[in-house]
Design a protein that fits this description.
about 140 residues; rod-shaped; 3 helices; alpha+beta; single chain; about 30% strand
């Protein structure tokens, strides 16, 4: 009986190994700007900053795609490119029989953040520390 089962197990194993590497990649989205960092780029000409084109990064493989996210590959691409913003980012999903992973490709730039004294961000937040809290509490 073992002699009949062994060739069948070998054949099934070979077929599973062949199909295990087959999958597909599809484009999940295109973004003009993408970042996982908080930055303020008002008045910055992104076309004049040094750019690193073709930066690509992958996320971790997830079983059946559960927990798949785009933040991890974006963070890895930003670290790889030495910047804090991606231009023309394209997100892909590579899915196989039992797992999937996210992938991103784009151009990385480093937007300088120079907030000097008196800098006012949108919403009125300033970089100058307030010294007295009593004026805010009075009616």
């Amino acid at each position: 009986m073992n002699r009949k089962i062994l060739p069948m197990l070998v054949a099934v194993s070979l077929v599973m190994c062949c199909f295990g590497g087959i999958g597909c990649t599809y484009r999940a989205g295109d973004f003009t700007l993408a970042s996982t960092k908080n930055l303020y780029a008002h008045g910055v000409d992104l076309t004049k900053l040094p750019q690193k084109q073709g930066v690509e990064a992958e996320g971790d493989a997830k079983f059946f795609g559960f927990g798949l996210n785009y933040k991890d590959p974006t963070d890895r691409a930003l670290e790889k490119g030495g910047g804090n913003l991606m231009i023309d980012a394209v997100y892909y999903v590579e899915s196989y029989w039992f797992f999937a992973k996210a992938k991103v490709r784009g151009t990385v730039v480093n937007v300088p953040y120079e907030a000097g004294p008196g800098f006012t961000a949108p919403g009125g937040a300033t970089t100058q520390p307030t010294t007295s809290m009593s004026s805010a509490a009075s009616p």
